[in-house]
Specification:
The protein is mostly helical. It has 20 helices and two strands. The chain has a two-stranded antiparallel ribbon. A hairpin with a 4-residue loop joins strand 1 (53-55) and strand 2 (60-62).
Length: 471
């Protein structure tokens, strides 16, 4: 039971939300219960972080790697619930259903990081995805149409397409090896990577994970889904699934080494195109969520670059980077949800004079964006620095040059938002009142961004120890 504690806690949380939805329609009651349950889930994931073992006929592994990611997922869920639990832009009568789908999606993500068998991975991935497919169109369309239905349809269609590719690739894996277990695939696939069937199978399987991480060329859903979803939904999509996607990519990428020359070059191209497409598209955006969506595509390219080092240090730096990325995004979305008092999309111009309306939110936004831009001494700078150094050690000189160019491009559009928030004054704008718990969360997120950037060594050593569990 202890081995499955975080997942059992999420199942219990879903059942409680379900019965609460039947017995009461009070939005405040549902919201408070959801926050308490989120705290319980986070506590359970921390409590189980040292557990080790296997379940379900050895298709489900509990180790330092999976439990660390479950703790990160649980913490991110709790943060999203704290600043996004008001659900201003979700119809009140479906608040319980929204929270139920949210917890079920997190359940799928936690199962995903422990799955070491292809069918278990598929079931977990679909559980996490279909719950979010339902959350996107739940946005209230009172007043004017805001593209939530179009966003939901695009998310679903791209997800189904990526799933189809992934299943086809899994069938190839089974045909090549006679097994669906990752440990068997890890031992046999590297020796086959010069065979066309093995390359095609790996590319197809990676398609499903590229979709989750929003990597090129499975990125097209990102800007429309970010813009069309409610702010709370976008906060979740932009953060929590990215952790599970990187965890799963790490399990798969260990099957590949630099001897698979064709596949390596293909992944390098995907990394570079993700960075350029994301950053160049973000330059012209006016909607903050849409801009962060394109930014996420570029950051996914950086994460992939860290994985392509094919070394434990690179893998650890990728974990460090994605953890920092999630914290930076949580800080930015906390500001978005606080500024959008009616649940509306926040335009960059809406942040004018934010330093006067709410100095704490302005500072949170500044630190979050500076970190995303890769400005020292924040975690974003150290994450990019480590990944670029790793790539340089592997003689990926062209890749490092292109990544550095993309960092310079990103600085422009991130700092343009800071300029509007601190250097533009709008008259008669209301002061933003921030509850105490959100002030505390803002300070905590800023502290994590700074501490991870100034003292990265301990975080990276811990990440290396978790990676050893799957190598």
């Amino acid at each position: 039971m202890m081995l499955f504690l975080p997942e059992l806690t999420l199942l219990g949380a879903g059942l409680i939300i379900f019965f609460v939805g039947i017995t009461t329609s009070n939005g405040a009651t549902v919201r408070n219960i959801a926050i308490i349950l989120g705290a319980v889930v986070f506590g359970a994931s921390l409590f189980a972080v040292s557990q080790e073992g296997e379940l379900f006929f050895q298709s489900y592994r509990i180790d330092a790697f999976s439990q660390t990611f479950k703790a990160l997922i649980g913490g991110s869920l709790f943060a999203v619930l704290l600043f996004g639990s008001r659900l201003i832009d979700i119809r009140k009568e479906i608040h319980p259903e929204y929270f139920l789908f949210l917890f079920m999606s997190v359940l799928g993500l936690m199962m995903l990081v422990s799955s070491i068998e292809l069918l278990a991975i598929f079931v977990s991935l679909e559980l996490s995805s279909f719950a979010v497919y339902m959350m996107v169109p739940m946005r209230d369309d009172t007043g004017k149409f805001r593209f939530q239905m179009e966003a939901g349809a695009k998310y679903l269609l791209f997800g189904v397409m990526a799933t189809g590719f992934m299943l086809f690739g899994m069938s190839y894996y089974f045909g090549l090896t006679g097994s669906t277990r990752l440990d068997v695939l890890v031992s046999e696939i590297p020796g086959m990577l010069n065979q066309p069937a093995a390359v095609v199978a790996t590319v197809m399987v990676l398609c499903g994970f590229f979709y989750k991480l929003a990597l090129f060329p499975f990125h097209f859903w990102v800007p429309d889904v970010y813009e069309g979803s409610a702010n709370e939904t976008t906060s979740f999509i932009a953060t929590v699934p990215k952790l599970a996607a990187v965890a799963l990519l790490l399990r798969i990428i260990t099957m590949i080494d630099s001897s698979g020359d064709i596949l390596l070059k293909l992944l390098m191209v995907c990394s570079v195109l993700s960075m350029f497409y994301g950053n160049l598209s973000a330059l012209v955006q006016k909607d903050v969520k849409r801009m962060l969506g394109f930014s996420g595509i570029a950051h996914a390219g950086f994460v992939l670059l860290g994985l392509l080092v094919f070394h434990i240090t690179g893998y650890a730096h990728a974990i460090y980077y994605i953890t920092g990325y999630v914290v930076m995004n949580l800080a930015c979305f906390l500001v978005i949800c606080s500024v959008a008092t009616q649940g509306e999309n926040v335009q960059i111009d809406d942040l004018a004079g934010l330093y006067k309306r709410s100095p704490l939110l302005a500072l949170t936004l500044l630190i979050g964006l500076f970190a995303l831009a890769g400005i020292p001494p924040f975690v974003g700078f150290m994450g990019k620095f480590f990944i670029l150094v790793d790539a340089l050690k592997q003689d990926y000189i062209l890749l490092v040059t292109l990544a550095a160019i993309n960092t310079a491009i990103a600085i422009y559009y991130y700092l343009s938002i800071v300029r509007v928030a601190f250097c533009t004054v709008e008259e008669d704008q209301p002061v933003i009142s921030t509850p105490l718990h959100l002030k505390m969360l803002s300070v905590l997120l800023m502290a994590i961004i700074v501490i991870m950037g100034v003292f990265p060594t301990q975080f990276i050593l811990y990440a290396e120890n978790t990676i050893l569990a799957i190598l």
